[in-house]
Amino acid sequence: MKKFTKLFLLMLAFIVSSSFLFAQTQFEKDYNLAKQQQIKAAYVQTEFVTPTEPADGTMAQGDACTDPFDYGLINDPPVNSATTFAGDADWYEFTGNDDMTVTVSLCGSAFDTKLEVWNDCSDPGYAYYNDDACGAQSEITGIPFVAGDVMYVKVYGYSSYYGAYILNITGVLPPPGPDPIVAFPFVENFESGSFPAEMQALEAAQSHAVVSSSESNGGAYSAILDGGSSSGFSGGSTSCTYNQAFVTNVSHHASINMLVQPVPGEPGLLTLEFDKKQNSGYGVAGNRRYSWYRVMVDGVDIPDKNGNTYYWASYNQYNGPWDLMEYDLTAYQGLSSFELTIQTSCKYNYGAYNGGDWSAIDNLNLYYELPPGSIDGHVFNGDGLTISGATVGIDDLGLVTTSAPDGFYSFNPVQIGTWDIQGWKEGYNLVTSSVTVNTGANTVHDIILTQPGMVINPLQLHETLNPNEWLKDWLGILNTGDGPLGWTAVINYPPGDAAQGYQQDITKVKIRDFSNVSDKGALSTIPGGNGQAMNTRGLECPDGSVFAYPAVGANNGYTSDGSYQSYQSFAGATGAFTTVTGFAIHTSAPSGPRELLVEVYQPGSTPGALVSSTIAIVDPVNTGVQVIGYDTYSYTIEIPSCDLTDGWVSIYATAGGSPTWYWLNTFGTPSYPAMQNTLVLPEGLALCLSGGSSTSGWLTLDAYEGTVAPMGG
After folding, report:
1. What are 269-300's pLDDT values in tens digits?
2. Phi-psi region for residue 286, left (φ > 0), alpha (ψ -120 to 50) or beta?
């Protein structure tokens, strides 16, 4: 290309042209004349004449980066010129006297343009590029410029396009920088709803940097850096590269700038951490490349503690996770100051398709991380002997270990600070002590476990009480050890003979083998029963029963023996129960005690989960009441205490034998469901639940728990 002065004005065309004709070749004269005619043709529709290139193939000014046209200074008037054939390109250089953010624009040109900006002609490629930022024309915004530098611009056409263009290079002075960060830790969670004075939010033509309530991690606000429209963004949703994101797509950059002034001689490692959440609306899982993010120090990418210098939102859409980002800044803490930048390159704005393209930043913390320390020591008893197998832990830090055979334990690393450390072992007291961990140092901390010793005197009390007589006596608890003795007491009432009114002797507790129980398909009752109802005296439940379903109008009994097992439900029990009373009808007198299985089940339309199972040898007690001509008997069985309000009870003769155990029926109101094997009975089964024999509760203690000091009582 041949030079065409940027000061061209139609009225002065001949004067300006003649000022340099004396030093030009005939070709250059013809070329510049044609150039003037071309511009005139573009703007005043005069005839356009295409100049010819030198026959010897030599290059004139503007054909190469190394011999560019001189645009002048940033914000000088725009240049009106033209490319004149397919593949033609014009090179310009420009400079400026101030640090600026620069825009290079071809908007308003007459053909489909492309635009490059180079830092130096010797670079392997351009620093900034654009195609079609403003329609078919090109524009690059957000170019950082340092006062006194020289940058280069290449103007050319897309494919075979060429023609008249307007090159306009403008710049704005940077906004006032952020206040320096001089006090540490510097913590910012954006809960004020705006950026603090120590943070400078920078936006480009297609990006935003705002504090918003749309995203947050543990609060109400976070900083959101997003994109804008597709204008000026190069790279596909699954193919955009780092170079495109952070070199080409400058109009989509959003940044948070901070000026850090480290404290000279401050101990610890200067560290940056914050929570980050990314989103990218397009692409596929694992490869979504419309949202990029990086951290820079003085304009140079730095890696996080995982070694990554940048991220794209590969997997995240909508409500992706918050990630803790950590950066080691120790390489810079010796500087008097440095610029710290969090920057994104995102295509679309927040809230666009699938949530848009953005990064959210929250809970930023810039601090000196002090190197951790360590703890070790031994676990001893009160006599100075080491204890192996003791557990040592610091709950606040989630640390736990076990002492070695020589009593030694250690923790490394341990966060600096003062912590409660605990030691314990079965037979010893839990001991808590305080330990202070200093940065980069080991703290020796021995743990002494105390051990109580318990002596009870007397071990037995033998007393005989007459009716209505009251007795108070004493038991002594002595602690012979060197640690506190914590004690608790419960009362276990002794077993006795049910016939004498004492608690039933529970001989064994087990789960019975039900292999001999089968559903016969029909209910089993007393064969040949005449259906005559019991007399009107009835069979009542014991006083104090928490559930009473006595025999009312009984006229038969249901087999709960051999291959039949019967169940009766209960509901609305008014308290816990420890005894079950059932009524049986026998066709002949029992020869002695019967072995009965009593089972308690969770509630349901049928028996639910098994709660307890008790087998006991039980004496039959003749009630003196006959039903259909046969004697009836009551059986009372002690079971483990049960606090169910609703449920099921089964009484079953485990050993079989004679006579058959028929569970007496009842027509009591209300009616509670009953079953035999898997069949529902047409009436209920007489059942009483009570809180235990009258002999329980006769003994009380002044205290049921306490602590005895070492060598005390």
Report:
1. 999 999 999 999 898 887 889 999 999 999 99
2. left
